[in-house]
Amino acid sequence: MPTDQIIxxxxxQCYPHKMLTGRRHQFPGLRQTGGISGFCKRKESEYDxxxxxxxxxxxxxxxxxxxxxxxxxxxxxxxxxxxGDGAITGGMAYEAMNSAGYLGNRMVVVLNDNGQVSLPxxxxxxxxxxxxxxxxxxxSNLLVSKPFQDFRDFAKSFNRLLPENIQDVNKRFDEYAxxxxxxxxxxxxxxxxxxxxxxxxxxxxxxxxMEKLRDSDxxxxxxxxxxxxxxxxxxxxxxASDKMxxxxxxxxxxxxxxxxxxxxxxxxxxxxxSLIDAATEDRAIVGITAAMPGGTGMDxxxxxxxKRTFDVGIAEQHAVxxxxxxxCEGLKPFVSIYSTFMQRAYDQVMHDVAIQNLPxxxxxxxxxxxxxxxxxxxGCYDLAYMGCLPNLTIMAPSDEIELRNMVKTCAxxxxxxxxxxxPRGNGYGADKLQNLFGYELENDEIPTKGESLEIGKGRIMxxxxxxxxxxxxxxxxxxxxxxxxxxxxxxxxxDSLIAANEVEDADPSIGVTVADGxxxxxxxxxxxxxxxxxxxxxxxxxxxxIGGFGDHVLHFLxxxxxxxxxxxxxxxxxxxxxxxxxxxxxxxxxxxxxNHGDIRDTIMxxxxxxxxxxxxxxxNVNVE
Length: 624
Description:
Blueprint: E1 5-8, H1 15-23, H2 58-71, E2 79-84, H3 91-103, E3 108-113, H4 134-145, H5 151-157, H6 164-169, H7 171-178, H8 186-189, E4 193-199, H9 203-215, E5 222-227, H10 235-238, H11 267-281, E6 285-289, H12 293-296, H13 298-304, E7 309-311, H14 316-328, E8 332-338, H15 339-342, H16 346-354, E9 361-365, H17 382-387, E10 393-395, H18 400-412, E11 418-421, H19 430-435, E12 459-462, E13 483-488, H20 493-506, E14 511-516, E15 519-521, H21 525-534, E16 537-541, H22 549-560, E17 569-573, H23 585-592, H24 596-606
Parallel strand pairs: 1-2, 2-3, 3-5, 4-5, 6-7, 6-8, 8-9, 9-11, 10-11, 13-14, 13-16, 16-17
Antiparallel strand pairs: 10-15, 12-14
Helix pairs in contact: 2-3, 5-7, 11-13, 11-18, 14-16, 20-24
């Protein structure tokens, strides 16, 4: 077992650590099914002291480990938190430093200061193009106001960690070594012994300083301030501020990541450009992100509207409550945060937004399964955790046209908070939108402007027999017992439509209707009642955990009496109650049982033995 506990904050930077702890041979499978994770994972190696993926946790973990070692009389050793100048902007890091200084626990915090606070740093915003952190500016001032500290200077000041009587003898040496330039730093005021700044690339100085800290008998927390350059020694990484912090396969010579060519733009870029369209017409619209401008599209928005773009650093709680304050004064804030990171601002969504019914627009990128980032980044839970809060309007687009429409809908809706969740990935392109989804596109071109949707209204996408059913095809499902309805929300509409075609190809007597719920709150009660009246089987499909859309539909069916007669078979298809490790999104859909084959098989099982149930009159509804 390792003697020292090293906790890597976020742990994007743990690749060298993994190589040095016996996993170099496993790197060909990095971030792939069955391979090693791109983050630290306790079950992967005894040298991964703590799992991570979200930021600002390392100092709290190191403090907890230090306390436990002391209380359990374990061998005294070091608990080291390695945290970047981006992660240290998170409020939890401040809370931990405040507590560590107060309790006086033995621990070392290594602050890796490379000026990369956001991804990417330098996005035009209301704060300019500097890193989105006043703390980063503060540490930068320390760097320029003091020369790098070498081991000789450090040794002279090291007595501050020693017993007080020895400190008194050596006080004059300490004053000489540190001088009056550093004064009382923020970290010293929080109770840390501050060491630095140190040149992180000068190993001749770094190693003996860290050895001295390691071997010290002191119980006082230490902060070692290290200055580094991101990607030092590899030009493609040095010049890519946001592209190589957690990479997949890439060309070693150029640094270009190897990706398949997309047939349509990314949904993130579609969101960003739709927001630009809305903001062009409405000067009250502003965009907010929490250190993820590149991942959320706020970098695109920021280039067009820098003064209306706010990057608050890794501070999701602050982002949501700041947006609430903006809404109070008449602005229309769009808070764009990954679904998984919005979990960190849950109380703010409830206490500061929902209770006061403020029109804050919460945009959840990466909703659903995200592929090779694994369980720390899946956005599986937002439908469940948002759906139980009053006053929220929650919607999920099934395709790029709907995404544009829903951005417009959020911009136009001023009667309360809205939530728009959309997945990682790209649009489908014109051909599939026409041939599978049934859109009628003028000149085969996808509309570039969104249209506002009626709140709480879904749509029928497909009737029995297909998009253009006629003749024998339209005669499918003559009785209610032969008709099945799929009610999807969000991303799984694509596979629901494919499954409907496959079922009808396999059994000419079955007719399948596919509907797009669009909204989870409020539900389209009229649409659900129509589906129940005309079909003996109703299946809901969603890319989310239990407690989401399917449960809301089931709750409505129960209260509405639709289940009382026993003539309706209902099945919710959701993500199973387990964690999904790294892999491709398609591999994860297959494991989750949410691809078109799984939907098809569910229908075939439910219709295997049918009984005669009277059919109600079918009302013709135009496919949108």
